[in-house]
From TrEMBL:
Annotated transmembrane regions: 12-31, 38-60, 66-83, 95-121, 127-145, 152-169, 181-198
Identification of the protein by name: Uncharacterized protein
Protein species of origin: Duganella zoogloeoides
Keywords: Membrane, Transmembrane, Transmembrane helix
Length: 224
């Protein structure tokens, strides 16, 4: 088991929470000037860098653990989009959201002893975890290079590199890919996508019923 240095974890936690908070603020605020965007990012970094309990990152880490590398990657991609004047996606891509929600549910059930499969502790494996991370990193690097879901692939690649090189945030592969906040986002995105798909199917079923009387009237006019 190769764990990251405690000081490195603390620095990572402060910086990661700062970038996540800045990405959220810039996604919600109608900011267009680049200077203002830089000031918001600088202000959140300075606020999270305050010592001990004076830093919001201290309490956020107590409540939600360290941000996963994947959440940090999404925050960086969102900041990049806002820098170029694009609006970030509030809902995660349906396929990715469903996968993260399912994996998170499985891991939480395993952690609480409901399944008792030992999946979470497998993330500390000195052989399997690094091999899986390297294989996944190659796959997502190819995806990003080809332009297939470039932003999510780049975020995933960032998370895998942080784990492979620095073992951040905790030395566990699953913690590099998932955290409570990211899992909640994935679960919410999955519910939103399911509701949209259900609404779309209902709209398709309503169209023939609504078109029926119109079709009959059109045929009657033609007959006249």
């Amino acid at each position: 088991m190769n764990l990251p240095d405690l000081m490195l974890q603390i620095v990572y936690g402060r910086l990661a929470w700062a970038l996540v908070a800045a990405a959220l603020l810039l996604a919600l605020l109608p900011v267009t000037a680049r200077r203002t965007k830089v000031l918001i990012v600088a202000a959140t970094v300075a606020l999270m860098a305050l010592p001990g309990p004076a830093s919001p990152a201290y309490w956020l880490t107590l409540a939600l653990q360290y941000p996963s590398g994947l959440l940090l990657g999404f925050a960086v991609m969102a900041l990049r989009a806002r820098w170029h004047g694009r609006q970030p996606r509030f809902a995660m891509r349906p396929g990715l959201a469903l996968g993260l929600a399912a994996i998170g549910l499985l891991l939480y059930l395993d952690t609480f002893g409901v399944l008792a499969l030992g999946l979470y502790y497998g993330g500390f494996s000195p052989v399997a975890a690094p091999l899986l991370a390297c294989a996944a990193a190659v796959g997502f690097a190819v995806n990003a290079w080809r332009g297939h879901a470039a932003a999510p692939s780049a975020a995933m690649l960032m998370a895998l590199l942080l784990f492979s090189v620095l073992r951040l945030p905790t030395g566990n592969l699953w913690d590099a890919l998932l955290d409570p906040l990211l899992w909640s986002w994935a679960l919410g995105s999955t519910i939103v996508a399911a509701r949209r798909r259900l609404a779309g199917r209902r709209a398709l079923h309503r169209q023939p019923a609504q078109a029926g009387p119109d079709l009959v009237a059109a045929r009657a006019v033609r007959a006249e």
